[in-house]
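Field reference: sequence -> structure
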Amino acid sequence: MADDRRWKSGDERDDRSGVRVSGKQIGTGIVVLLLVVFVLQNTDTTSITLLVFDISFPLWLVLTGTIVLSVGVGYALGSRGRSRRT
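Structure field:
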């Protein structure tokens, strides 16, 4: 006679079901949290010179803009590299 305990019915849930978080996601979350803390701690005003223009901005805004540009460039270059391999 066959052992029916090894076959699970559709109604039974596996104990390990749910959201699985990878190490890459945990690392990304930690980096994002550290970046947010870093940006929020730097709220002074800073002067930015670009060619002949001299503009004063809050430092947190400059840091946020730099992070957004960096992520955008990294995403664009990363997706370009992946499409080449296929």
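Note: The chain has a mean pLDDT of 79.
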